[in-house]
Amino acid sequence: MTHGRRTETYSPHLDRGGDWRDTATRYALLPLRIFLGVTFVYAGLDKLTDSAFLKDSGAGSIGDMMRAVRDSSAIPTLIDLSLKNPVGFGYAIAFGELAVGLGVLVGLLTRLAALGGVLISLSLWLTVSWASDPYYYGNDLPYMMAWIPLVLAGAPVLSLDAALRARRRRGSADHT
Length: 176
Description:
By secondary structure, the chain is mainly α.
């Protein structure tokens, strides 16, 4: 049996034909990408520009917030770790949210960015919003679940990932 390169370039996400249902299917994740991307960019910028947040202590500080939720969190060890350097932790969360949001908005390394969104939301759910009762009052769990389709599917349209994939496909077609 011989092995060769695949030469077909068909992808259901890049097929320009079809009816409105096909088009809706291709673009179904775009509103989710925009919402999560804008929300995480905003959250990151909000933290970076809030002088009270990026402090060890004081009203509205990351340090006081972490100390306040320590005993009600699912994993107090995560809180203890963040309290070793609350300001550094605040910057890490803010820059993480910013990177995740921008990555998803422009569609660059979308699956990786979405995985970052899952991990940020999971850590916030297990620490800050764990004590929400009932659980659906906390917003971190729904955010975590909203990231999962983007982890699985990426950004098949209107993204740098799709443009790079098309460029690689054109390049490999030129070499066959």
